[in-house]
Protein: 2-isopropylmalate synthase
Amino acid sequence: MSSNRVIIFDTTLRDGEQSPGASMNQEEKLRIAQQLERLRVDVIEAGFPIASPGDFAGVKAVADTIRECQVAGLCRARDADIDRAWEALKGGADPRIHTFIATSPIHMRHKLKMEPDQVIEAAVAAVKRAKSYTSNVEWSAEDAGRSEMEFLARIVEAVIAAGATTINIPDTVGYTLPHEFGPRMAQLIENVPNSDKAVFSVHCHNDLGLATANSLAAVAGGARQVECTINGLGERAGNASLEEVVMALRTRQDIMPYETRIETTEITRASRLVSQITGFMVQPNKAIVGANAFAHESGIHQDGVLKNAITYEIMTPESVGLSTNRMVLGKHSGRHAFKDRLQQLGYELDAEQLQNAFQAFKELADKKGEVLDEDLAVLVDEERRIE
Ligand code: KIV
Ligand code: ZN
Structure:
Protein backbone atom coordinates (compact mmCIF):
# COMPACT_ATOMS: atom_id res chain seq x y z
CA MET A 1 0.00 0.00 0.00
CA SER A 2 1.42 3.42 -0.87
CA SER A 3 2.55 5.64 1.98
CA ASN A 4 -0.08 8.25 1.24
CA ARG A 5 -3.00 5.82 1.33
CA VAL A 6 -5.33 6.39 4.30
CA ILE A 7 -7.34 3.40 5.54
CA ILE A 8 -10.92 4.25 6.45
CA PHE A 9 -12.12 2.27 9.47
CA ASP A 10 -15.83 2.76 9.98
CA THR A 11 -17.17 2.25 13.49
CA THR A 12 -20.81 3.31 12.96
CA LEU A 13 -21.93 -0.18 14.01
CA ARG A 14 -19.84 -0.14 17.21
CA ASP A 15 -18.99 3.33 18.56
CA GLY A 16 -21.90 4.79 16.58
CA GLU A 17 -24.26 2.28 18.10
CA GLN A 18 -23.02 3.25 21.58
CA SER A 19 -24.77 6.58 21.05
CA PRO A 20 -27.71 6.51 23.49
CA GLY A 21 -30.83 5.60 21.53
CA ALA A 22 -29.02 4.31 18.44
CA SER A 23 -29.24 0.57 19.08
CA MET A 24 -29.62 -1.55 15.95
CA ASN A 25 -30.83 -5.09 15.45
CA GLN A 26 -29.03 -7.68 13.38
CA GLU A 27 -30.95 -7.02 10.18
CA GLU A 28 -30.36 -3.26 10.48
CA LYS A 29 -26.63 -3.77 11.11
CA LEU A 30 -26.43 -5.92 8.03
CA ARG A 31 -28.17 -3.34 5.84
CA ILE A 32 -25.75 -0.66 7.01
CA ALA A 33 -22.75 -2.98 6.57
CA GLN A 34 -23.80 -3.68 2.98
CA GLN A 35 -23.98 0.07 2.30
CA LEU A 36 -20.54 0.52 3.92
CA GLU A 37 -19.26 -2.14 1.53
CA ARG A 38 -20.70 -0.18 -1.44
CA LEU A 39 -19.03 2.91 0.04
CA ARG A 40 -15.79 0.90 -0.03
CA VAL A 41 -14.62 1.50 3.53
CA ASP A 42 -11.55 -0.65 4.30
CA VAL A 43 -12.66 -1.90 7.72
CA ILE A 44 -16.11 -2.24 9.28
CA GLU A 45 -16.11 -2.46 13.07
CA ALA A 46 -19.33 -4.41 13.51
CA GLY A 47 -19.72 -4.39 17.29
CA PHE A 48 -18.51 -5.58 20.67
CA PRO A 49 -19.26 -9.32 20.60
CA ILE A 50 -19.10 -9.98 24.35
CA ALA A 51 -21.46 -7.09 25.13
CA SER A 52 -24.65 -9.11 24.49
CA PRO A 53 -25.94 -12.11 22.55
CA GLY A 54 -27.55 -9.68 20.09
CA ASP A 55 -24.27 -7.88 19.50
CA PHE A 56 -22.49 -11.20 19.00
CA ALA A 57 -25.10 -12.22 16.42
CA GLY A 58 -24.82 -8.85 14.66
CA VAL A 59 -21.02 -9.06 14.37
CA LYS A 60 -21.24 -12.67 13.18
CA ALA A 61 -23.84 -11.85 10.54
CA VAL A 62 -21.72 -8.98 9.21
CA ALA A 63 -18.50 -11.05 9.22
CA ASP A 64 -20.22 -13.97 7.45
CA THR A 65 -21.77 -11.73 4.78
CA ILE A 66 -19.33 -8.96 3.90
CA ARG A 67 -16.55 -10.01 1.51
CA GLU A 68 -15.00 -6.75 0.29
CA CYS A 69 -14.06 -5.17 3.64
CA GLN A 70 -12.20 -6.33 6.70
CA VAL A 71 -14.61 -6.88 9.60
CA ALA A 72 -13.48 -6.04 13.14
CA GLY A 73 -14.90 -6.78 16.58
CA LEU A 74 -13.95 -4.93 19.75
CA CYS A 75 -12.76 -6.59 22.97
CA ARG A 76 -11.19 -5.55 26.23
CA ALA A 77 -7.80 -7.01 27.22
CA ARG A 78 -9.46 -10.13 28.60
CA ASP A 79 -9.27 -13.70 27.38
CA ALA A 80 -13.04 -14.22 27.42
CA ASP A 81 -13.61 -11.06 25.34
CA ILE A 82 -11.00 -12.05 22.78
CA ASP A 83 -12.26 -15.63 22.46
CA ARG A 84 -15.83 -14.40 22.03
CA ALA A 85 -14.78 -11.83 19.44
CA TRP A 86 -13.00 -14.53 17.45
CA GLU A 87 -16.08 -16.79 17.58
CA ALA A 88 -18.09 -13.99 15.98
CA LEU A 89 -15.45 -12.96 13.45
CA LYS A 90 -13.93 -16.19 12.23
CA GLY A 91 -16.20 -16.54 9.18
CA GLY A 92 -15.01 -13.18 7.86
CA ALA A 93 -13.03 -12.67 4.64
CA ASP A 94 -10.35 -10.76 6.55
CA PRO A 95 -11.26 -10.64 10.25
CA ARG A 96 -9.61 -8.20 12.61
CA ILE A 97 -9.52 -8.47 16.40
CA HIS A 98 -9.48 -5.03 18.01
CA THR A 99 -8.38 -5.06 21.64
CA PHE A 100 -7.97 -2.03 23.88
CA ILE A 101 -6.93 -0.92 27.33
CA ALA A 102 -6.76 2.51 28.89
CA THR A 103 -3.36 4.18 29.19
CA SER A 104 -4.01 7.56 30.83
CA PRO A 105 -3.15 8.10 34.51
CA ILE A 106 -6.80 9.04 35.14
CA HIS A 107 -8.17 5.81 33.68
CA MET A 108 -5.44 3.53 35.06
CA ARG A 109 -5.86 4.90 38.57
CA HIS A 110 -9.62 5.42 38.83
CA LYS A 111 -11.10 2.90 36.44
CA LEU A 112 -8.68 0.01 35.97
CA LYS A 113 -7.04 0.39 39.40
CA MET A 114 -3.85 -1.00 37.86
CA GLU A 115 -0.23 0.07 37.90
CA PRO A 116 1.27 1.11 34.53
CA ASP A 117 3.43 -2.04 34.33
CA GLN A 118 0.36 -4.22 34.90
CA VAL A 119 -1.39 -2.40 32.06
CA ILE A 120 1.53 -3.15 29.73
CA GLU A 121 1.45 -6.79 30.77
CA ALA A 122 -2.31 -7.06 30.15
CA ALA A 123 -2.03 -5.34 26.77
CA VAL A 124 0.78 -7.61 25.60
CA ALA A 125 -1.08 -10.74 26.76
CA ALA A 126 -4.24 -9.61 24.94
CA VAL A 127 -2.38 -8.95 21.70
CA LYS A 128 -0.66 -12.34 21.89
CA ARG A 129 -3.95 -14.14 22.45
CA ALA A 130 -5.58 -12.27 19.55
CA LYS A 131 -2.57 -13.06 17.41
CA SER A 132 -3.05 -16.76 18.06
CA TYR A 133 -6.33 -16.43 16.09
CA THR A 134 -5.47 -13.96 13.34
CA SER A 135 -2.53 -11.98 12.00
CA ASN A 136 -4.79 -8.91 11.74
CA VAL A 137 -4.68 -7.42 15.26
CA GLU A 138 -5.43 -3.85 16.24
CA TRP A 139 -4.56 -2.47 19.63
CA SER A 140 -5.96 0.79 21.06
CA ALA A 141 -4.67 3.01 23.85
CA GLU A 142 -7.93 4.24 25.34
CA ASP A 143 -7.72 7.89 26.46
CA ALA A 144 -4.39 8.29 24.63
CA GLY A 145 -5.22 12.00 24.32
CA ARG A 146 -4.61 12.34 28.07
CA SER A 147 -1.83 9.74 28.37
CA GLU A 148 1.80 10.51 29.13
CA MET A 149 3.93 10.38 26.01
CA GLU A 150 6.75 8.37 27.54
CA PHE A 151 4.41 5.66 28.81
CA LEU A 152 2.49 5.64 25.54
CA ALA A 153 5.70 5.05 23.57
CA ARG A 154 6.70 2.23 25.93
CA ILE A 155 3.39 0.37 25.71
CA VAL A 156 3.11 0.86 21.94
CA GLU A 157 6.60 -0.60 21.45
CA ALA A 158 5.61 -3.61 23.58
CA VAL A 159 2.33 -4.36 21.77
CA ILE A 160 3.99 -4.06 18.34
CA ALA A 161 6.63 -6.54 19.53
CA ALA A 162 3.74 -8.80 20.62
CA GLY A 163 2.28 -8.70 17.11
CA ALA A 164 -0.17 -5.77 16.82
CA THR A 165 -0.32 -4.60 13.22
CA THR A 166 -2.46 -1.49 13.79
CA ILE A 167 -1.88 0.93 16.65
CA ASN A 168 -4.84 3.15 17.35
CA ILE A 169 -4.40 6.42 19.24
CA PRO A 170 -7.83 7.60 20.38
CA ASP A 171 -8.75 10.99 21.70
CA THR A 172 -11.43 9.20 23.71
CA VAL A 173 -12.90 12.25 25.42
CA GLY A 174 -12.38 14.77 22.60
CA TYR A 175 -9.95 16.77 24.73
CA THR A 176 -7.05 17.57 22.43
CA LEU A 177 -6.59 20.41 19.98
CA PRO A 178 -5.43 19.92 16.38
CA HIS A 179 -2.13 21.77 16.74
CA GLU A 180 -1.39 19.57 19.77
CA PHE A 181 -2.65 16.23 18.48
CA GLY A 182 -0.90 16.24 15.08
CA PRO A 183 2.60 16.78 16.54
CA ARG A 184 1.77 14.27 19.30
CA MET A 185 1.12 11.60 16.69
CA ALA A 186 4.34 12.49 14.86
CA GLN A 187 6.35 12.43 18.10
CA LEU A 188 4.94 9.05 19.09
CA ILE A 189 5.77 7.48 15.73
CA GLU A 190 9.27 8.89 15.96
CA ASN A 191 9.84 7.68 19.54
CA VAL A 192 8.68 4.08 19.02
CA PRO A 193 11.69 2.17 17.63
CA ASN A 194 9.62 -0.48 15.80
CA SER A 195 6.90 1.92 14.59
CA ASP A 196 7.47 0.90 10.95
CA LYS A 197 6.01 -2.55 11.77
CA ALA A 198 2.49 -1.17 12.30
CA VAL A 199 -0.03 1.24 10.80
CA PHE A 200 -0.79 4.12 13.15
CA SER A 201 -4.44 5.03 13.46
CA VAL A 202 -6.49 7.86 14.92
CA HIS A 203 -9.91 7.75 16.61
CA CYS A 204 -11.32 11.11 17.67
CA HIS A 205 -14.39 12.09 19.63
CA ASN A 206 -16.21 15.35 19.10
CA ASP A 207 -16.71 16.76 22.61
CA LEU A 208 -15.21 20.10 21.56
CA GLY A 209 -16.36 19.84 17.94
CA LEU A 210 -12.80 19.04 16.83
CA ALA A 211 -12.99 15.37 15.86
CA THR A 212 -12.55 15.93 12.12
CA ALA A 213 -9.85 18.59 12.59
CA ASN A 214 -7.94 16.36 15.03
CA SER A 215 -8.19 13.37 12.68
CA LEU A 216 -6.77 15.40 9.80
CA ALA A 217 -4.00 16.76 12.04
CA ALA A 218 -3.13 13.18 13.01
CA VAL A 219 -2.92 12.18 9.34
CA ALA A 220 -0.55 15.10 8.78
CA GLY A 221 1.42 13.72 11.76
CA GLY A 222 1.74 10.27 10.19
CA ALA A 223 -1.47 8.34 10.97
CA ARG A 224 -2.59 6.21 8.03
CA GLN A 225 -5.89 4.93 9.37
CA VAL A 226 -8.82 7.12 10.42
CA GLU A 227 -11.62 5.72 12.56
CA CYS A 228 -14.90 7.47 11.93
CA THR A 229 -18.66 7.06 11.62
CA ILE A 230 -21.41 7.99 9.21
CA ASN A 231 -23.02 11.32 10.23
CA GLY A 232 -20.50 11.51 13.10
CA LEU A 233 -22.68 9.20 15.20
CA GLY A 234 -21.03 8.01 18.42
CA GLU A 235 -20.65 8.22 22.19
CA ARG A 236 -21.68 11.61 23.67
CA ALA A 237 -21.03 14.28 21.01
CA GLY A 238 -20.04 11.58 18.53
CA ASN A 239 -17.00 10.48 16.54
CA ALA A 240 -15.19 12.04 13.60
CA SER A 241 -17.60 12.06 10.70
CA LEU A 242 -16.55 9.82 7.80
CA GLU A 243 -18.01 12.11 5.16
CA GLU A 244 -16.15 15.14 6.53
CA VAL A 245 -12.78 13.39 6.79
CA VAL A 246 -13.05 11.80 3.34
CA MET A 247 -14.27 14.91 1.54
CA ALA A 248 -11.68 17.11 3.28
CA LEU A 249 -8.93 14.79 2.07
CA ARG A 250 -10.41 14.72 -1.42
CA THR A 251 -11.05 18.46 -1.65
CA ARG A 252 -7.71 19.61 -0.24
CA GLN A 253 -5.34 17.36 -2.18
CA ASP A 254 -3.20 20.47 -2.68
CA ILE A 255 -2.06 20.44 0.93
CA MET A 256 -3.12 16.95 2.05
CA PRO A 257 -2.07 14.62 -0.78
CA TYR A 258 -3.57 11.44 0.70
CA GLU A 259 -5.96 9.02 -0.90
CA THR A 260 -8.73 6.75 0.34
CA ARG A 261 -10.59 4.09 -1.63
CA ILE A 262 -14.01 5.53 -0.72
CA GLU A 263 -16.67 5.69 -3.44
CA THR A 264 -17.80 9.16 -2.46
CA THR A 265 -20.98 9.05 -4.58
CA GLU A 266 -22.35 6.57 -2.00
CA ILE A 267 -21.99 9.06 0.88
CA THR A 268 -25.49 10.57 0.74
CA ARG A 269 -27.14 7.16 0.55
CA ALA A 270 -25.10 5.95 3.54
CA SER A 271 -26.00 9.04 5.54
CA ARG A 272 -29.73 8.69 4.83
CA LEU A 273 -29.75 4.99 5.62
CA VAL A 274 -28.04 5.48 9.00
CA SER A 275 -30.37 8.36 9.83
CA GLN A 276 -33.44 6.36 8.87
CA ILE A 277 -32.41 3.24 10.82
CA THR A 278 -31.28 5.01 14.00
CA GLY A 279 -33.94 7.73 13.91
CA PHE A 280 -31.16 10.33 14.40
CA MET A 281 -31.96 13.33 12.21
CA VAL A 282 -29.06 15.00 10.43
CA GLN A 283 -28.96 18.71 11.25
CA PRO A 284 -29.75 20.78 8.11
CA ASN A 285 -26.43 22.63 8.21
CA LYS A 286 -24.31 19.49 8.76
CA ALA A 287 -21.25 19.55 6.49
CA ILE A 288 -21.50 17.36 3.36
CA VAL A 289 -24.77 15.56 4.19
CA GLY A 290 -27.08 18.20 5.73
CA ALA A 291 -30.12 19.24 3.68
CA ASN A 292 -28.59 22.71 3.26
CA ALA A 293 -25.03 21.57 2.44
CA PHE A 294 -25.61 22.30 -1.25
CA ALA A 295 -28.50 24.80 -0.95
CA HIS A 296 -28.30 28.49 -1.79
CA GLU A 297 -30.79 31.16 -0.82
CA SER A 298 -29.18 34.55 -1.01
CA GLY A 299 -29.40 36.48 -4.26
CA ILE A 300 -25.66 37.09 -4.48
CA HIS A 301 -24.85 33.41 -3.97
CA GLN A 302 -27.56 32.21 -6.34
CA ASP A 303 -26.39 34.60 -9.02
CA GLY A 304 -22.81 33.35 -8.60
CA VAL A 305 -23.77 29.67 -8.63
CA LEU A 306 -25.98 30.11 -11.70
CA LYS A 307 -23.01 31.69 -13.50
CA ASN A 308 -20.52 29.09 -12.25
CA ALA A 309 -21.07 26.76 -9.28
CA ILE A 310 -17.42 26.93 -8.20
CA THR A 311 -18.11 30.44 -6.89
CA TYR A 312 -19.80 29.01 -3.80
CA GLU A 313 -19.34 25.22 -3.95
CA ILE A 314 -15.99 23.66 -3.05
CA MET A 315 -17.14 20.20 -4.15
CA THR A 316 -19.88 19.15 -6.53
CA PRO A 317 -23.17 17.75 -5.22
CA GLU A 318 -22.70 14.86 -7.68
CA SER A 319 -19.42 13.90 -5.99
CA VAL A 320 -21.33 12.95 -2.81
CA GLY A 321 -24.22 11.30 -4.62
CA LEU A 322 -26.72 14.15 -4.98
CA SER A 323 -28.21 14.81 -8.41
CA THR A 324 -28.00 18.60 -8.11
CA ASN A 325 -27.60 21.56 -5.80
CA ARG A 326 -30.73 23.29 -4.51
CA MET A 327 -31.78 26.88 -5.06
CA VAL A 328 -34.07 27.92 -2.24
CA LEU A 329 -36.35 30.80 -3.17
CA GLY A 330 -36.80 33.05 -0.15
CA LYS A 331 -36.62 36.70 0.84
CA HIS A 332 -32.86 36.83 0.21
CA SER A 333 -33.17 35.54 -3.35
CA GLY A 334 -32.59 37.75 -6.36
CA ARG A 335 -34.14 38.25 -9.76
CA HIS A 336 -31.68 35.93 -11.52
CA ALA A 337 -32.67 32.82 -9.53
CA PHE A 338 -36.36 33.79 -9.63
CA LYS A 339 -36.38 34.11 -13.42
CA ASP A 340 -34.35 30.94 -13.80
CA ARG A 341 -36.83 28.92 -11.74
CA LEU A 342 -39.81 30.32 -13.69
CA GLN A 343 -38.11 29.28 -16.91
CA GLN A 344 -37.46 25.78 -15.54
CA LEU A 345 -41.17 25.55 -14.69
CA GLY A 346 -42.06 26.59 -18.26
CA TYR A 347 -43.35 30.12 -17.60
CA GLU A 348 -42.52 32.84 -20.13
CA LEU A 349 -43.26 36.33 -18.77
CA ASP A 350 -42.57 39.66 -20.41
CA ALA A 351 -40.49 42.25 -18.57
CA GLU A 352 -43.43 43.95 -16.89
CA GLN A 353 -45.08 40.68 -15.81
CA LEU A 354 -41.75 39.50 -14.45
CA GLN A 355 -41.29 42.70 -12.45
CA ASN A 356 -44.78 42.43 -10.92
CA ALA A 357 -44.40 38.72 -10.17
CA PHE A 358 -41.01 39.35 -8.56
CA GLN A 359 -42.52 42.01 -6.31
CA ALA A 360 -45.35 39.67 -5.30
CA PHE A 361 -42.79 36.91 -4.69
CA LYS A 362 -40.79 39.11 -2.28
CA GLU A 363 -43.93 39.99 -0.33
CA LEU A 364 -44.86 36.33 -0.07
CA ALA A 365 -41.31 35.35 0.94
CA ASP A 366 -41.40 37.86 3.79
CA LYS A 367 -44.51 36.17 5.15
CA LYS A 368 -43.77 32.55 4.33
CA GLY A 369 -40.00 31.96 4.32
CA GLU A 370 -39.37 29.46 1.54
CA VAL A 371 -41.43 29.97 -1.62
CA LEU A 372 -42.20 26.65 -3.30
CA ASP A 373 -42.92 25.84 -6.94
CA GLU A 374 -46.66 25.54 -6.13
CA ASP A 375 -46.57 29.10 -4.75
CA LEU A 376 -44.91 30.34 -7.94
CA ALA A 377 -47.67 28.77 -10.03
CA VAL A 378 -50.27 30.73 -8.06
CA LEU A 379 -48.22 33.94 -8.36
CA VAL A 380 -47.88 33.63 -12.12
CA ASP A 381 -51.57 32.75 -12.62
CA GLU A 382 -52.53 35.74 -10.51
CA GLU A 383 -50.29 38.03 -12.57
CA ARG A 384 -51.77 36.74 -15.84
CA ARG A 385 -55.35 37.07 -14.49
CA ILE A 386 -54.81 40.72 -13.54
CA GLU A 387 -53.68 41.45 -17.09
O1 KIV B 1 -12.93 6.16 22.14
C1 KIV B 1 -12.24 5.17 22.36
O2 KIV B 1 -11.19 5.22 23.02
C2 KIV B 1 -12.71 3.90 21.83
C3 KIV B 1 -11.76 2.76 21.90
C4 KIV B 1 -12.40 1.56 22.45
C5 KIV B 1 -11.14 2.54 20.55
O3 KIV B 1 -13.78 3.82 21.29
ZN1 ZN C 1 -14.53 5.82 20.71
Notes: The beta strands are 7-10, 43-47, 70-76, 95-102, 137-142, 166-171, 199-204, 225-228, 295-296, 326-327. The chain has a mean pLDDT of 97. The longest helix spans residues 351-368.
